[in-house]
Amino acid sequence: MELLRSLQITLAEEVLSVSGLVLLLVAAWGGDKAARLISILSVAVLAVCALIAAPALCGSAMGPDVTAFAGQYRADAFAAFAKLLIYAGAGVTLIVAPAFFERVRGMRAEFPLLVLFAALGMGIMVSAGDLLALYIGLELNSLASYVLASMLRSDERSAESGLKYFVLGSLASGILLYGVSLTYGFTGTTSFEGIRLALGHGLSTGATFGVVFVLAGLAFKISAAPFHMWTPDVYEGAPTPVTTFFATAPKVAALSLLMRVSLEAFGAQPHAWQQIVIFAALLSIVIGALGAIGQNNIKRLMAYSSINNVGFMLIGLACANQPGAAAMLIYLAIYVAMSVAGFVAVLMLKDADGEPVEAISDMAGLSKTRPGLAAALAAVMFSLAGIPPLFGFWGKFVVFQAAVQANLLALAAIGIAASVIGAFYYLKVVKVLYFDEATDKVTGKSDLAHTVLLVIATLFISPLGYLLTNWLHGLAGNAAAALFHVA
C-alpha cells in the first residue's frame, strides 16, 4: 500500500518518464521528420503534468500526506508552484524552437525529448526531500542541458558553449557532491528533515563546511556571482530557443532547490548561510549591472541581466522567513514572464534572409520599422529595470519590502541603489530602439507562434499584470507555507 501511495504522489514524474520513453521510440522510427509531431506531443505531456501538479498548489498541500518513498520526494504546494513555472518554460521552448531550427535545418527529433527529460530532472529537484534525490534530479537535468547547449553541431559557438557548460557544470557538481558528503558525515543522515534535527543541536565546523560547499554548488546552477562565469558565454553561444529554456525552467528549478535546501535542511541554523546568501546577492547585483554596461550582444546583455535579477531574488531568501520566501516566488514568476517576452522578442529579430540579429547596434531605429516589436522589447527592458508601472517593479518591491520587515535595512538600501545602476543598460537599449538612426537590419518576418507568445507575455508584464497580484500572492503564500510546515 505504501508503494502504491508513493506512485500516486509521483504521478507527474511517471507521466514524463513514460511519455519520454514512448516518444523516444517514435523518434527512433520516424527520425527527424517526426520532430515537429514529437514537439507537439511533448507540449501536451507538459500540459497534462501541469494539470496534475496544480491541485497541490491550490489546496496548499503539505505534510506527510504528500511525502513519498520514505521522505525522498515531496509533492507539496511549493513543489507544485515551481513545477508549473518549469512546465511553462519548457512548453514555451518547444513552441518557439521548430521555426528557429528548421531555418538552419537543425531541428532534430531528440530536442523535445531532451527538454522532457530535463523537465523530469527539474521536477525531482524541486520535490526532493533528501540529498540523494536532489543530486539525481540535478544530474538528470544537467546531462540533458549540456547536450541542448551544443545542439547546433554546425555552429562553433554552440559547440563551445556546450563544452564550457559541461566542464564548469561538472566542477560545480563535484563541489556540491563534496558538500553533500560532508553534510552526511557530520549529521549522519541525507534526509532534509533529519539534517534539520541534527543541526538543531548545534553546528560543528565540519557541518559548516558542508553547508558552504552545498550552497556553492547550487550557486553555480542559479548563475549567482561569483559562480556566474559560464552564463554570458553559454547564453550567447547556445541556440536562442535553448537560451530561452536556460533562462526560465532550469533557473526556476535551481532557485527553488536552493530555497528548499536552505529553509528546510539548513533551516535550524539560518545564521550559518544568511551571510553567504547576502554576499552572493550583493555581488550578483553589482556584477550583473556593471557587466552588462559594455555589452553589444543582446543575448549577453540578457545573461548579465539574469545574474542581476538572481541577486534581487536572493534578497528574499536572505530574509530566512515565510514572507521573504513568498516574495522570492512572486519575483520568480514575474521574472519567468519577462524572460519569455525578452527571448521571444530576440528570436523575432531577423534580417531579410532570416538570419538572427543579435547586435544591439543593429536594432537602431527599430521603432520606425517594427513598432510593435520595439514596443514589446522596450516593455521588457523597463520591466527588468523595475520601472513602474510595469509589473517587474512589483517583483522588486515585494522583495525589498520583505527585507525591510526582516530588519535587513542595509541590504535593501544597497539593493535599491544598485538597481539604479542596472537601469542604465536597460535604458541604453530603449534609446537605441527609439532615438538612434534606423539601420533597417531587422526586416525578417516573424512566426505566428512567436507573435502570440510575445503578446501574451508582454501583457502579463504590463500594468495589466497588477490585476493578478492578489491571485499571485495567494499562490506564493501557499507555496512558501509548505516550506515552513516542518518548523
From TrEMBL:
Q: Where in the cell is it found?
A: Cell membrane; Endomembrane system; Membrane
Signal sequence segment: none
Membrane topology of this protein: Multi-pass membrane protein
Q: Print the keywords alphabetically.
A: Cell membrane, Membrane, NAD, Quinone, Translocase, Transmembrane, Transmembrane helix, Transport, Ubiquinone
Top-level taxon in the UniProt lineage:
Bacteria
Under InterPro entries, the record lists:
NADH-Q_OxRdtase_suN/2, ND/Mrp_TM
The NADH:quinone oxidoreductase/Mrp antiporter transmembrane domain sits at 128-422
Task: Please list the reactions this protein catalyses.
Answer: a quinone + NADH + 5 H(+)(in) = a quinol + NAD(+) + 4 H(+)(out)
Q: Give the Enzyme Commission number.
A: 7.1.1.-
Residue intervals passing through the bilayer? 6-30, 37-57, 77-101, 113-138, 165-186, 198-220, 272-294, 301-320, 326-349, 373-394, 406-427, 448-468
Which HAMAP family does the entry link to? Answer: NDH1_NuoN_1 (MF_00445)
Family (UniProt): Belongs to the complex I subunit 2 family.
Role this protein plays: NDH-1 shuttles electrons from NADH, via FMN and iron-sulfur (Fe-S) centers, to quinones in the respiratory chain. The immediate electron acceptor for the enzyme in this species is believed to be ubiquinone. Couples the redox reaction to proton translocation (for every two electrons transferred, four hydrogen ions are translocated across the cytoplasmic membrane), and thus conserves the redox energy in a proton gradient.
**Subunit structure comment from the entry:** NDH-1 is composed of 14 different subunits. Subunits NuoA, H, J, K, L, M, N constitute the membrane sector of the complex.
Stated name of the protein: NADH-quinone oxidoreductase subunit N
